[in-house]
Design goal:
10% helix; 6 strands; 103 residues; three-stranded antiparallel beta sheet; globular; Quinone Oxidoreductase, Chain A, domain 1; mainly beta
Length: 103
């Protein structure tokens, strides 16, 4: 059960900004809300603030947390880790069982 409508976040939109009141995302079908326990800053995050890939949004794709809200009850309360890649499952890399390289 979600009790807050905001979360803490480090947001990049040309500059870094810490937000204590960032809007909580609304999960789409097949997605979940995760309460982050620990998060890290990696080289990708450092490159993003230099302009890598033109990224704008919330930083922090390396984390561990617990699923708080999910359409599939089997995952409720489960401990999870983050993954930067969201593979399509259809491209040549995915078909070759290399989803981490999905364009």
């Amino acid at each position: 059960m979600i009790y807050s409508v905001t979360m803490r976040a480090i947001v990049f939109d040309g500059k870094l900004e810490y937000r204590a009141d960032y809007p909580l995302p609304v999960p789409l079908e097949g997605e979940a809300i995760i309460k982050v326990s620990l998060a890290g800053v990696c080289a990708t995050d450092l490159e993003i603030i230099k302009g890598y890939m033109g990224f704008k949004g919330v930083l922090g794709h390396e984390f561990v947390g617990v699923i708080e809200e999910c359409s599939d009850d089997r995952f409720q309360g489960k401990r999870v880790v983050g993954e930067i890649n969201i593979p399509c499952g259809k491209c040549e890399c995915c078909k070759a069982k290399m989803p981490a390289h999905c364009p």
